[in-house]
Write a structure and sequence with these properties.
This protein has 332 residues and is an all-alpha fold. It is 69% helix and 0% strand. It is built from 14 helices and no strands. Helix 2 packs across helix 3, helix 4 crosses helix 8 and helix 8 packs parallel to helix 9. The radius of gyration is 23 Å and the shape is globular.
């Protein structure tokens, strides 16, 4: 047997060994009921309440960062949590969006205004692409390859994204319109800062006061009541305060409010197609690849970090499959 043939056989054996690693189950939740006791229900209920009190304001915040309607952020946080629990392996996994993924979505649609005008309609299509990428990656064992990405690359990207997110949210803190009808929305750090400084005279004292109250409530709760759900309480507290002040001060009555919705708005429905669907798929594929890459890396880091503390055995391929199914459920 020639050396070339031996090398090819060794290479083929390595490839087969790679793909013959951890198996992906289609419904691993069926094993979770064995040994489940009544006391576990109360423990899970307490955990569920704690996570929900954190996920509700975070779902709203990340929806605002990504530039989509807030009801989508709330509904998808709930749907993803239910769907992923049926298909994931780890009991500690990040399912919702993060600063990096939310900002990636925002920056893409801000760069292409024609697509940005249809962002809410295109989000189900993006979720379908993400589901396909995650599910395919799970069966191809891509999760094991993500760990070789340089940490410095991710730290640099996340730090830059955090800076741009804070800059982009300053308009809401100051109550300033960055772009009037017909004007182009600033997209970079320098153009956003320039627009903020140009329109600093239009700052709303009521908006600044509400932002300051939110920060004070958060800092106070984290210092004196660290076990309390600080995000949810800060959201509820500032909302109640703004409503009370609006009865006496016209400036607070003019604060911008999120669009309300009713339960009928959250009924599952099939995503609507369009004549440009194939073109939209091509335009969104690069964005889907970027979000899937960041999501896979963050999921891997989270699962490994928590498993090192709890001693839980991990299966990254199964968890990636669960994230894909959570995206697929969120499409509807």
């Amino acid at each position: 047997m020639s050396n070339r043939t031996k090398k090819l056989k060794l290479l083929w054996a390595e490839i087969r060994g790679f793909f013959a690693g951890q198996e992906v189950e289609l419904l691993p939740a069926r094993h979770g009921w064995s040994g489940y006791q009544r006391t576990d229900i109360w423990a899970d209920l307490r955990s569920g309440i704690n996570v929900a009190l954190l996920a509700l304001p975070q779902g709203m915040a990340f929806a605002l960062i990504a530039g989509v309607a807030v009801p989508y952020g709330i509904a998808c946080a709930a749907v993803a949590a239910v769907a992923a629990a049926l298909f994931c392996h780890s009991s500690h996994i990040a399912l919702g969006p993060t600063n990096a993924t939310a900002f990636t979505v925002f920056s893409f649609f801000a760069t292409y205004p024609a697509l940005g005008a249809r962002q809410d309609a295109l989000m189900p299509l993006l979720a379908i692409l993400l589901a396909i990428l995650f599910i395919t990656g799970a069966f191809l064992h891509v999760a094991e390859l993500v760990q070789y990405i340089s940490r410095s690359v991710m730290v640099g990207y996340i730090s830059g994204a955090a800076l741009l997110i804070m800059t982009a949210q300053m308009k809401d803190v100051l109550g300033i319109m960055l772009a009037n009808p017909g004007e182009t929305m600033p997209r970079t750090f320098f153009t956003t800062m320039g627009r903020l400084m140009d329109r600093a005279a239009a700052t709303s004292p009521a908006s600044v006061a509400m932002a300051a109250c939110t920060i004070l409530i958060l800092l106070g709760l984290e210092k004196w009541r660290p076990r309390w759900p600080s995000f949810a309480l800060a959201l509820a507290g500032t909302t109640a305060l703004a409503c009370a002040l609006a009865q006496f001060f016209p400036a607070f009555a003019g604060l911008a409010r999120l669009e309300s919705f009713v339960i009928n708005d959250l009924h599952p429905r099939l995503p609507t197609g369009s004549a440009t669907m194939l073109d939209d798929l091509g335009a969104l594929f690069g964005l889907a690849m970027a979000v899937a890459f960041i999501g896979a890396l963050e999921t891997s880091v989270m699962v490994k970090g928590m498993a090192s503390r709890s001693g839980e055995k991990i299966n990254l391929d199964q968890d990636m499959f669960g994230v894909g199914m959570a995206n697929l459920a969120s499409v509807f």
